[in-house]
Amino acid sequence: MNTDFETSCSIGLPDEAHRSSVSIGAKPRVAVFSLTGCEGCSLAILELEDQLLDVLGAIEIVNFREAISERSWDIDIGFVDGAVSTPDDVEEVKRFREACGTLVAIGACACLGGINTLKNHQPEDSYRRYVYGDRAKWFDTQEAKPISAFVKVDYELPGCPMVKEEFLRLVKCLLVGRPFRLPEYAVCVECKKRGNPCLYEKGIVCLGPITRAGCDAICPSFGSRCEACRGILSAEALRAAGLNLQERYDIPLEKVLSELRFYGAYQEETIS
């Protein structure tokens, strides 16, 4: 990971969220929850292995379905992956918010709505039949949204999956009372630092110019385009990219927005 990313230890949320603090004792009680999603971000925590062991001495995990059978609802810091995509999800995320002193959204689904939001652009009957077949009527559904559309979120760790090292840095910052901030520049900056050739020169529509950095440009570094799983930097970045890409590569903004919809359909609607 690049040094700028490693040394950042609040995110682009409203000022109220920036002022949130963690009032915790010597050993904060931590929980990890999942809503609608693949639970890949929860699994990413377990994949930290030895690094996670270093942290476990300073925290107490009290609720984590992937790791322990015990359950407690007295929680200092709660991490949530997955989008709100059903009425049950709405009730669950409200319960998480009430139980947790600090609530952290982890991964593209929790932070942006993620791939789940693709269903928002399809007829409900169509996607319900595709997923559930002749049992579709058994399952309630609704428009998919990030958890911040329903409750106050104190921190976000975007990505698909979230960056594991970023999770560790946030936990350590919360433990020592230091501020935590995501990068405020685009993935293109990380590409330049790594000496990657620009994919636009190869005729590939890459969303790096409008996407928040922090992944160390992992996808472009292996020849794959950025798909904006860490979210759009800002409306200004989107407008600027629309002008620049049209002028330099003859790529209309509509094409960029259609590519953005894979992870950011909900963000596209709220940022425009």
Largest sheet: 5 strands, parallel
Number of helices: 12
Q: What does the overall shape look like? A: globular
CATH architecture descriptor text of the largest domain:
3-Layer(aba) Sandwich
* CATH class category name of the largest domain: Alpha Beta
Strand order of the largest sheet: 2-1-3-4-5
The CATH homologous superfamily of the largest domain corresponds to: NADH:ubiquinone oxidoreductase-like, 20kDa subunit
What number is the mean pLDDT?
88
Q: Roughly how many Å is the radius of gyration?
A: 19 Å
Low-confidence stretches: 1-8, 10-21
Describe this structure in words.
- The chain has helices spanning 3-7, 15-18, 40-46, 50-56, 87-99, 107-112, 124-132, 164-176, 187-194, 218-221, 235-249, 253-271, and strands at 29-34, 60-64, 75-81, 100-106, 155-157.
- It has 272 residues and is α/β, with parallel strands linked by helices.
- It folds into 2 domains: 3-176, Rossmann fold (3-Layer(aba) Sandwich), CATH 3.40.50.700; 187-271, no CATH class.
- A 5-stranded parallel sheet has the order 2-1-3-4-5.
- Helix 11 runs antiparallel to helix 12 (253-271).
